[in-house]
Specification:
The chain has about 140 residues and is an alpha+beta fold. The chain is built from 2 helices and 4 strands; from the N terminus they run ααββββ.
């Protein structure tokens, strides 16, 4: 019938194939978990940024800050660090398209869509956070 060497080879190939399949699913879950963490942190950071801007406006007669320096170098300090100055933070880049005395629009965009994040988050005056898939951009 079958040679014992052939049977051993087939057994090894089955084990290798099953191991590769298991690793594929495990690595996929790890990547998805990392993306979810990055997205949650991006939402938290935008909410923190928005809260700092809103608190500044409340303390300054509804006049919003015109730069992040007014939040980080103010007494009291409204924001501990400048999220706009960092190149990226956990796979997301932060930017303010509008930051003037009448309001703001800031966003968190994944550095690499589908790898570091799947969603673009935008916060605007009043603290409303919107999200959209980065595939659409």
């Amino acid at each position: 019938m079958f040679n014992s060497k052939a049977r051993s080879f087939v057994t090894i190939m089955v084990v290798v194939a099953l191991s590769a399949l298991f690793l594929r699913f495990a690595i996929n879950r790890i990547i998805i978990y990392g993306i979810q963490q990055n997205q949650t942190l991006a939402q938290v950071n935008l909410k923190l940024f928005s809260t700092a801007i809103e608190n500044y406006a409340k303390d300054n007669k509804n006049v919003y800050p015109t730069s992040v320096d007014l939040l980080t170098n103010h007494n009291p300090v409204y924001l501990e660090k400048d999220y706009l100055d960092a190149p990226s933070l956990r796979g997301y880049e932060y930017d303010c398209q509008r930051l003037d005395a009448t309001g703001y629009i800031c966003s968190a965009t994944p550095v690499n869509c589908k790898l570091t994040g799947k969603t673009i988050y935008t916060v605007s005056t009043g603290g409303l956070i919107l999200s959209e898939s980065c595939d659409k951009k």
